[in-house]
Fold this protein.
Amino acid sequence: MELCSLSSVLLAIAILFIVFYVYYTWTFSIFEQLGIPGPTPRPVFGNMHQLGPGMRNVDIEWSKKYGKLFGTFEGRQPMMVTADPEICKQICVKQFASFYNRRLIPLTNKEFLTSINMLKDQKWKNKRNALTPAFSTSKMKAMTPLVNTAADALVRNLEKHCESGKPMQCKDVFGSYAIDSLASAGFGVDVNSQEDPDNPFVRNAKEAFSFGVTHPIFIVIFFFPFLVPFFEFFDIEINPKRLMKYFLDLINETVALRKSQDPSVKRVDLLQQMMDAHDVYDQYIKGNEDEEEEDENGVKLVKDGKSDTHEFSKKFTNEDILGQSLIFFLGGFETTSTTMCFLAYVMATQPEIQDKVCKEIDDVMAEYDEPNYQAVAKMPYLDMVVRETLRMYPPAVRFDRECTEDITIEGYRIPKGMHISVAVYAIHHNPDIYPEPEKFIPERFTKEEKEKRHPYSWLPFGAGPRNCIGMRFALLELKIGLVRVFTEYKFEPCAETEIPPKLGNSAFLAPPTGITLAVKRRR
């Protein structure tokens, strides 16, 4: 009897093992069937166990070994990866109709699902068309005072480090500047995190946007996807509901306050643009060309909005506003704070470049009381330094798209439902595109040098119609902050400075231990 029971248990274990093995390996033959090379996956892990050296380094290694397009697995989920600018162009622009959507991460908070990053198909297009005018030249100029207010606190913060003589943790200082400027422009609130780190907005924002790939829910999504329905049944999401409730309450209060004020007195920020989305969009489709958005190559990103006029009979709901504000804050925070950290490091370790940046700033700012849209537009060398920093240290090492129909690109057959990831870091560090890629050379971004390269070989903000809508604001925010800093201060290495800096090994490049530098007065 005992032998029979033991046999039954062993048989059940064997059957369970077979079921799990089939479940985890069922998708592993797809790339072989498509004739696409790639590293060999393992059950449960797929290829994620091979990312130990860092996703950025593995992308470079695999692109060299397997070519333009290769197949990998996130757990059992197949993912094509490319480090080829031409395939990127096909996916993001030429064949955009077949790659309309971004990948949707399961268990994402419902508040995020209304953002343009998460919306799909026509819903995405409608929201994108409505939001595009908020990032036009005229709106960027009008939002400059908000950024300068945040930069005032940044300068005061640097002064404290100068007076104390203590080294500066760049991640803390520039992160606070990013929080202040983005909270002001995206949520319509002034938090001054640089002088009030215990502000409720600051505490909740840091908690809400601190999740990474080691978050327990991400582990479930990648390695145990069969548990996702269980989490959905119990309404478990990436962020605690209390955090999302805080931000929704904040939006509701701010919107109600603005509606109760004199309509002739309006604060110019993204929140107000969303409240006025219907009116703004009407102005946009009447042909005000300077309100149109273009990508890096002058391609119009919104072409036929007039056909969708009827979709804008209703204004943004408060939930819609929250979704856009959250994604604007999340994307802008990482890009701005990380780029400023790396740029400060480069300035400290290459003082000749820092001197050239400071001289250009001095020359231009002799004509202005404070930096604005026009002033930073007259600083080509600063622009080259920013772009080279984003080339060498792109905040996100990949971005992805979802294939919506069977299609063949560059001889590769891509089935409907396949996710494709563009390896940004690998493209940015390809020596065939950027000779000596580990060297910081701002002159790579002169007009003449840019014309020599493939137009889709610089991708820190993505590419095509679904690129980062806040790119222009991010660059403006970066440059105003840098101009204010280098007008009065300079950076130097100190005993705590890591040379070279440690880089993040996940999808984000932000240094895990930060970057520590000394701050000195220029004069």
The chain is about 50% helix and 10% strand. The first strand starts at residue 69 and ends at 74. The chain has a mean pLDDT of 86.
